[in-house]
Amino acid sequence: MIEDGTSVRVGDAGPRPVHLLFSEPTRPFGDDPTLDFLVKARGQWVSIETLVRTWDGDGLDTFLSSLAEDFRGWGGARAWRSLERDLTISAEHRPGGYVHLTWGIHDRPPSEEWHFETTTVHAAGEDMRNLAAELHTFLTSTIE
Q1: φ and ψ at 135, to 5 degrees?
Q2: pTM value surpassing 0.85
Q3: Residue 18 in 3-state DSSP?
């Protein structure tokens, strides 16, 4: 869900919810296609964040849109990663019409000392289309 023009929250309430917050999209080199943003994982027992570096979003919104278009399902896992592998996603279509997205947040190279994963569950089709659209709006919010 879009919280405002420049942040997106992914994940919903549960017994021990962990949600992700995408915020602060910036173009550190002006007109260069490099797009950075913060991703934070927050929950009762976790609070981490890292700066994610992408090349114009690295097709994150397109990846999520492709999952929405294949709402009837697919075999195995589909994967996405950011330019410097600081954010990764593994997507699996499960019985009952749900997509499980396992989000990996990684320490930046070269140290790569830590790694965190959490999984969010989304209804195939419309829920995935909405997530893709929200992240598209987020990723393009720095374009004037």
Answers
A1: -70, -30
A2: yes
A3: strand
**CA-to-CA separations, 114 to 12, 20, 50, 101, 107, in angstroms, rounded:** 25, 17, 11, 20, 5
- Tokens describing residue 50: 């890292």
* Rounded Cα distance, 123 and 77, in Å: 16
Give the rounded distance of the alpha carbon of 4 from its chain centre. 16
Among 25, 24, 10, which residue's Cα sits nearest to residue 139? 25
Sheet with 87-94, strands from edge to edge, namely: 77-81, 87-94, 98-106, 115-123
pLDDT digits (tens, 9 = 90+) for 37-83: 999 999 888 899 999 999 999 999 999 999 999 989 999 999 999 99
Residues 7, 24, 87: CA angle, nearest 5 degrees: 85
Backbone phi, then psi, for 60, in 5-degree steps? -55, -45
In this structure, the number of other CB atoms found within 10 A of the CB of residue 115 comes to 10
Lowest mean pLDDT among 9-23, 39-53, 118-132: 9-23
Name the E strands within 1-144.
2-4, 7-10, 18-26, 34-43, 47-55, 77-81, 87-94, 98-106, 115-123
